[in-house]
Amino acid sequence: MRKxxxxxxxxxxxxxxxxxxxxSSGWVKQGVSLNARSGPSTGxxxxxxxxxxxxxTLGQWQNGWVQVSYNYQNYWVAGQYVANHACQAYxxxxxxxxxxxxxxxxxxxxxxxxxxxx
Length: 118
Description:
The chain is an alpha+beta fold. The protein has a domain at 22-85: SH3 type barrels. The protein is 18% helix and 34% strand. The protein has 1 helix and 9 strands; from the N terminus they run H-E-E-E-E-E-E-E-E-E.
């Protein structure tokens, strides 16, 4: 009986350790304002909104929803809007042949920022 009890304690400890190890970072996808809810469905009220590219600590998943932790609070968000990598800054491709088009119909006056059409 004592051996069986010890095995149960060891198994429970291993399980708890594995759950803690599952927590990882996720980021709100770029261009998304993400509603956070008190439970894992749209039937629960929105209790917070995350800005694009906000880093979150991910917990358990349930039917496409993921429990997240942010500033010591727990929320549920739709998993499809969470990325497993940080947002990347947009760097437009370099095009050495590009020249800004010249528009002779508009001329900036020397004393201000008003444009006149001639």
